[in-house]
Amino acid sequence: MLFLLVVVMFVLLIIVGVAYRK
């Protein structure tokens, strides 16, 4: 469960990074 939470947060961080780069 904890690992899944880390993965979700990591994916959100990537999405924010890509959106900010645009």
TrEMBL record:
Cell compartment(s), UniProt: Membrane
One protein family per Pfam: YjcZ_2
Matching InterPro entries: YjcZ-like
Name the UniProt record assigns to this protein: YjcZ family sporulation protein
NCBIfam families named among the record's database cross-references: tiny_TM_bacill (TIGR01732)
Keyword terms, alphabetized: Membrane, Transmembrane, Transmembrane helix
Membrane topology field: Single-pass membrane protein
Recorded coiled-coil stretches: none
Organism: Salipaludibacillus agaradhaerens (Bacillus agaradhaerens)
Any one Gene Ontology cellular component term annotated for this protein: membrane
The family this protein is said to belong to: Belongs to the SscA family.
Record has Membrane as a keyword: yes
